[in-house]
Amino acid sequence: MSPGVDDKDSADAELPTVTLPRAGEVAHRSDGANQHDPEHEHHHHILIEPEEDRWRWRRKIRENKRQLMVYRMAVGILGLILIALGLISGPIPGPGGIPLVLLGLAVWSSEFEWAHQLMMWFKKELHRYGTWPRTTKGVFWVVFFGCCGLFGYLYLLALGIPRWMPGSVEALLQRLPGL
Question: What contacts 110, CB < 8 A, 6 or more positions away?
């Protein structure tokens, strides 16, 4: 079990938990009440209420409005830093771009509902991609890398070959028409 997560034998195990509906699903009330009943509708931008949070340290933060504001700002800044690093490191060879952007989004989704919904959409699309036949996946990747190559070529046409490019790669790129 992860550190900081309460186990079933702790005193906090008796606290009620809630199951959030997946992205795109509508939560149905068992008592037949109208889903848009303003009396029972939650208008909050926090995913879980303090008493529903399984992390003891986060429950304590959520109970204090000032600490919660500082915590949410820290989560927002950390997510922004990770996404910015992902965008900066995207064109650089090696891992960095997309994983860092997704990590930043995951950090945001721990605290902001809009980011949580976006993350659920990404997961749903990833599962949908998993159901595609092999030929469709192959065509997708050919088109994807073709678009990436076209974008790179248009970038080189507009801005020229970067100065930091190694000489051997620069000589190869100069063979392309228009460069």
Answer: 47, 75, 116
pLDDT digits (tens, 9 = 90+) for 63-86: 888 888 898 899 999 999 999 998
Q: Which of 150, 141, 79 is nearest to 111 (CA)?
A: 79
Q: Where are the alpha helices (DSSP H) in 90-112?
A: 97-109
**Is residue 23 within 8 Å of 127, Cβ to Cβ?**
no
CB 109 within 8 A of CB 119: yes
- 174 vs 153: CA distance, rounded Å: 11
Q: How far apart, in Å, are the Cα atoms of 86 and each of 79, 91, 126, 146?
A: 11, 9, 20, 22
Q: pTM for this one?
A: 0.52
Strand partners, 55: 5
